[in-house]
Amino acid sequence: MPKDFKLLMLGAMYENGGNTTHRFLDGHPQMFVYPFESQLGTRMVNDHLASVFPVKYRWPVFSLDATPAQDYYAIIDEECKVRARTSHVSKFRHMPFEFNDDERGKLFEKHVAHMGRSRAANMAAFFRATFEAWKDHAKTGREQVYVGYSPIVTVDADKMLSDFPRGHFLHVVRNPWSAFADTKKRPVPLPLKAYMLGWTLCQYHALMFREKFPDRMHIVRLEDLLENPHSALGVVCEKMGLERTDTLKTPTWNGKVLEEVYPWGTIRRATVEANRATAQELSKEESAEIRLLAEPYLAPLRYKDFLG
Fold first, then answer.
1. Angle subtended by helix axes 229-239 and 18-25, to nearest 10
2. Which of 148, 181, 253, 298 could potentially form a cystine with 303 if both were Cys, beta carbons 3.0 to 4.6 Å apart?
3. Is 144 contained in some domain?
4. Is 285 inside a domain boundary?
5. How many domains does one find in the chain?
6. Backbone angles phi and psi of 232, in degrees to 5
7. pTM of the entire predicted model
8. How far apart are alpha carbons 150 and 176 in whole angstroms?
């Protein structure tokens, strides 16, 4: 039943290392780790944050009068559906992926019929059906926890944690200078002030929800993960009752070692040195403005002296 479903959901502002963290967890023998970003939102999300963040990244809202089949197709899940249905245009087309989206939809309906229709039941059914439909997934037989990742879903962490009393949420934060410098490399990057509005909103919600759910809301700095992923992620695993395995030392996809995290994320070299070098790419004016906009969160997140 949904109340017993074990989900670890990851969230992070863009270019903050969410995809990188997701890949470091991928090889854990006790985890079903979603293959791509699990973009669980629907177009029915319509609140005060809908103008700031794309709805595909939000915790979903479902129509009261919909059927399970309609619920399934309302879930945007763009990266997985593109790879499954039009693989020739997917940025992941080079990776083997034996998966049929229509089959997953039927499995989803079957699970919802068993559990009863609700947001929590829909999400539990979605993750279960994904791994039942993924034929070449490298299962260990020891999996206990499902793991998803969506950018900025941290702003909805309270909804996820309320839906799943046995669930945990992991928020990943990166220093705002390196993060914005990587954002600037996108074809159409967010302006600095718009980017920092999103960054600060994510940190506000992460810190606030950690006060509300101290045992199940976790925050990991990308800088600490890059220095020692086995330690940074091992602490979270142990809080969930899972092993601190050596698989946490290496980013993988479906158990296969990745030389670089890209195209799962924009961070190509997941190293301490590359992260610091990226921050130095900004102008003095950009660095100063970021410090001003991020000021309330720099000390709580230990970034006050990051640039020296």
1. 70
2. 298
3. no
4. yes
5. 2
6. -60, -45
7. 0.96
8. 19
Peptide bond into 68 cis (omega under 30): no
pLDDT in tens, 158-178: 999 999 999 999 999 999 999
Q: Is residue 298 in a domain?
A: yes
Name the residue range of residue 20's domain: 1-29+154-245+261-308
- Residue 270's pLDDT is what? 75
Do residue 158 and residue 59 come from a single domain? no
Rounded Cα distance, 105 and 100, in Å: 9
- 146 domain residue, yes or no: no
pLDDT of 67 strictly over 80: yes
- Would you place residue 68 in the very low, low, confident or very high pLDDT band (cuts 50, 70, 90)? very high
Matching residue, tokens 């009752």: 241
Residue type for position 294? A
Neighbours of 16 (CB within 10 A): 31
